[in-house]
User: Which sequence fits this backbone?
């Protein structure tokens, strides 16, 4: 059977991504499900429960509702709760059962909005995809409903890097922030600090340390910085709808690594071209493999190259991550001039949505960096632990590593790698 796992864990589902994305925006988010999805999310995937409240609910979908198609009860409960709680919006999504039985959540959202006057929308989920799909779709729906258009002249796409803008001239949206990829407290502060150091101004941080007012002004930005796969759908939407270019990459590592990213953000703001800042410019070796979400993993690989002068490849273990979006962009020729050959071939990265494929690719490398729950299938390899909340939840919170704007050699990952490489 394809896309199965016998020994490793699975990633947080799209319903968890939906909840994580919308957590801080003052809306009422509801998973249409019998029970379980919400408690799994709150127990394993959400550290913000300790200091921030959010209106997260489950519908209590029953067997009778499924058989008889009793959508009216769900509508009634949504309207009743909305009148009591007065949320800024109502967002609903489906778990596997209503997805399989064909519940029309778009119609339900339309009816609820008509009765309450509160903006209501459905986010497409089915409980069978990863957090990336759920969170990505949620951010797009949020922008569709609340981002206000602005009359702003975008730069001509000349492809020239001449005349880069200065400090207070570049407004940046940071896209793809959720605790599922960035669980450490202080992450947004570190990003803001890094942007300020590179003479870039924050327009909005989407997902964390945020508000609905920030979503309203997304169109005012000059460029979007996509720090994880979660931010790609929103980046594409803002590019197509408002012409805002985006740069893909997270500021991991020392000043040499992150300065390249800062420069690329300014270039994109100037020439209006999208860019992949977490790319490798040299042929990738097979000695080191990084398992995980593709954007953060490739950004880490870039930092490793800059600080240790050795290449690393990425084994994307989330099937609906950035590599899928990247292939789409390549097909649409939106990356013309960025690469001489096929990107995936040049980078030697692989998307592995099956445990058997992942095991085969792991055997091609000597050093593996990844979440501790991947270690059982990395037999005979040097394994360096890098916890990922979207994969192992809160199991290894004491081992989480802050990579943003931090020299890799000062982190536990860098120290372990230096020891292994003898550098």
Assistant:
């Amino acid at each position: 059977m394809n896309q199965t796992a016998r020994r490793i864990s699975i990633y947080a589902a799209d319903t968890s991504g939906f909840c994580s994305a919308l957590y801080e925006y003052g809306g009422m988010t509801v998973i249409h499900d019998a029970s379980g999805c919400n408690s799994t999310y709150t127990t394993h995937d959400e550290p913000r429960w300790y200091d921030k409240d959010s209106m997260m609910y489950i519908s209590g979908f029953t067997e009778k509702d499924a058989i008889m198609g009793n959508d009216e009860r769900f509508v009634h409960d949504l309207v009743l709760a909305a009148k009591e709680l007065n949320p800024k919006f109502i967002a609903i999504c489906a778990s596997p059962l209503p997805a399989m039985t064909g519940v029309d959540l778009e119609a339900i959202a339309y009816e609820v909005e008509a009765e309450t006057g509160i903006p209501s929308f459905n986010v497409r989920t089915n409980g069978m995809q990863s957090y990336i799909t759920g969170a990505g779709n949620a951010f797009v729906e949020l922008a569709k409903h609340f981002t206000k258009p602005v009359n702003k002249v975008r730069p001509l796409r000349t492809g020239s890097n001449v005349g880069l803008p200065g400090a207070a001239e570049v407004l940046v949206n940071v896209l793809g922030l959720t605790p599922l990829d960035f669980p450490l407290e202080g992450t947004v502060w570190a990003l803001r600090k890094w942007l300020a150091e590179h003479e870039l101004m924050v327009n909005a941080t989407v997902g964390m340390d945020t508000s609905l007012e920030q979503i309203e002004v997304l169109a005012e930005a000059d460029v979007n910085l996509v720090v994880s796969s979660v931010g790609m759908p929103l980046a594409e939407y803002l590019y197509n709808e408002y012409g805002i270019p985006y740069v893909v990459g997270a500021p991991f590592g020392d000043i040499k690594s992150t300065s390249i990213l800062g420069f690329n953000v300014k270039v994109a703001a100037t020439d209006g071209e999208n860019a992949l800042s977490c790319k490798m410019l040299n042929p990738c070796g097979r000695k080191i493999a990084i398992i995980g979400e593709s954007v953060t993993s490739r950004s880490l690989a870039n930092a490793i190259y800059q600080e240790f002068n050795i290449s690393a490849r990425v084994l994307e273990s989330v099937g609906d991550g950035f590599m899928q979006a990247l292939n789409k962009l390549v097909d649409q020729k939106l990356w013309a001039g960025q690469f001489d050959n096929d990107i995936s071939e040049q980078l030697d990265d692989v998307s592995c949505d099956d445990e058997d494929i992942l095991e085969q690719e792991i055997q091609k490398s000597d050093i593996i960096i990844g979440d501790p729950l991947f270690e059982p299938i990395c037999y005979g390899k040097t394994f360096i632990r890098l916890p990922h909340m979207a994969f192992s939840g809160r199991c290894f919170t004491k081992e989480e590593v802050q990579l943003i704007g931090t020299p890799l050699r000062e982190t536990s990952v860098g120290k372990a790698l230096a020891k292994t490489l003898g550098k």
Observations:
- Residues 255-271 form the longest helix (17 residues).
- The longest strand covers residues 28-32.
